[in-house]
Structure formats: structure tokens, C-alpha cells
Amino acid sequence: MTSFLDFEKPIAEIEGRIHELRHVSDSSSASILEEVSKLQGRVDKMLQQTYAKLDPWQKTQVARHAGRPHFSDYISRLIDDFIPLSGDRNFSDDPAMIGGLGRFRGKSVMIIGHEKGADTESRLHHNFGMPHPEGYRKAIRLFRLAERFGLPVITLVDTSGAHPGVEAEERGQAEAIARSIETCLDLRTPLISLVIGEGGSGGAIAIAVANKVMMMEHSIYSVISPEGCASILWRSAEYAKDAAEALKMTAQDLFKLELIDTIIEEPIGGAHRDPEKAMDSAANAIAESLKSLSSQSGEDLRKNRRLKFLKMGDLGLT
Fold first, then answer.
1. Angle at 245 between CA 184 and CA 221, to 5 degrees
2. For 94-113, how does the pLDDT look when each residue is reduced to its tens digit (9 = 90+)?
3. How does residue 317 score in pLDDT terms, banded at 50, 70 and 90?
4. Same domain, yes or no, for 121 and 270?
5. Are residues 161 and 260 in the same domain?
6. Does residue 318 form part of some domain?
7. What is the pTM of this model?
8. pLDDT at residue 18 tops 80
9. Cβ contact 96:131 at 8 Å
10. Containing domain of residue 28, as a range?
11. How many distinct structural domains can be found in the chain?
12. Contacts for 175 with CB less than 8 Å, ≥ 6 apart
């Protein structure tokens, strides 16, 4: 069953009626089939109208929807012969950050990303997609391994941020994130990043300093969560909606600001309503980006990536 968001209540009521009609004893009768068809048409129209005008806070809810495909779903759908590579060779393995080798449409790649988990048990195991320092150090190790063998790197971003606990700070969280960003900027191999859900703070950008940065249509990407921003500026998380609007965190806002390169269209009603179609659209965009980067030398890839991010801080003062 679909989990409905607050702003989808009118749609939920109609879909509930459709569900009831499909389970009555004579559900195959012409009159019931006709009624179901009419109601489904209304649902489709309402979804299209609703999702065409989502505000930033509503997009935040969609980006966090539990039914959206996660990293492991993308691996199952897009990557053949995936071989996970574990550990940072320093402290331990971090299940919040997964990475490994595989084949994407016949081409060997390194793929790395955050995994939030799909149920209570897996979310606890993956720490809700919030990596510790060893997660970023594992990513650094895999970045360098990919560079050594000339493999393109694909990263999938889906985190509210790096783990904020004391133990993470004790093990050098800030240093690990900074080193990961530095490594991304230094790689001499194609690097493509896709925000599939929530891209939060340094925990996200640590693996997203890429030649091509893409976002799913209803994903978000910001320096801080709306709740965290509201708590700082308004001293209350109740102003999260206002913060979401001020942060310019939607894919559409970031594309206008030229901070991302591509917006990948999602199925009507969000990726959680048709995960396979959403992931296939993402795969097509990734394939196109890999093709566009394949002709560049390693040094050009490195140089162009650095210039791309330096340009974001250019205020026209020089």
C-alpha cells in the first residue's frame, strides 16, 4: 500500500475508494469497472496537478518518502555483478556508506553511495544513511582504487548529513569529510554524482564534488536540513517550511543557480509511485553523462571539475 503524505489526503481518499471497489464480490461487473476507471482518471489528474506545484517543504517530504528507491535498489536495478568492498583499512566498515565494483550497461564502474535502509531494522543497521568518518575514508579508498584502474565513479547521494555523534567527532569527522572532498577534486577519472533523495550538508557533498552533478526531480540538496536551519534562525523547528523556502534547496532552484547540471524527471506522483521507471530514467542520464566525459583525458577531467566548483564561488569581484 502507498504511504500518503499530508498534502495527498484528497488523493488518498479516492484511492481508498478504488481499493474498496476492487475488492467487492462482483468487482468484475461493468459498472464497477467503469467507476474504477473514472476514479483512477481523477487520481491521475490530481497527482499531475499536485506534483506540478509542490512547494519546497512538500518536496522535502517527497524526497524523504520511505518508498523512494534507495542505494541498494539502484544497485539491484542498474548494476550487474556488483562486488561490495568493505572497510576503510583504518578503523572499521561503515554500513551507512556502501561502495563496490560492478558493470553499468556493460562498462566496469565503481559505485559509492549512502544507504538509509528500508525498514526499522535496516535503518538502524545503516544508521539512517548518516556515515561515520570511516564511511568517508572508505569512499576515499574506493575513489583512489577506481583511479588506479581507470574506472569511472558513480556516487548516489541520500543522507540527511554525516553522523553528529561524539564518537564520530573523536575519530575526525570533519577531517574525513574534507579529505573526501579533496580526493573528489583530485581524481583523474570521470566522476558523476546523483542526488536520489536527500542531500544534506557536508555529509552529501563529501562524495558529490563531481564532473556532472544531477538531481532527481523531487530531491533536495542543501547545507543544512530545514529543521536545523529553523532551529538556528527562528529558535524553533516549527519554522521548517519557511526555512525550506529560504534555503533554495530544490532541484529546480539549484539548476537555476547553476549549482547542478541536470534534473532527472520522476514519474507523476514521485519516484516512490514507480521506482523502476524512476531508476531507469536515472540510468539513462548517467549513461549520457558517462558518454560525454569519456573523451576527456584524466588531467582534463580533474582540471574541469576544479574549475566547475571554483566558478560557483566567483562573485564577479575579480
1. 15
2. 999 999 999 999 999 999 99
3. very low
4. yes
5. yes
6. no
7. 0.89
8. no
9. yes
10. 6-53
11. 2
12. 133
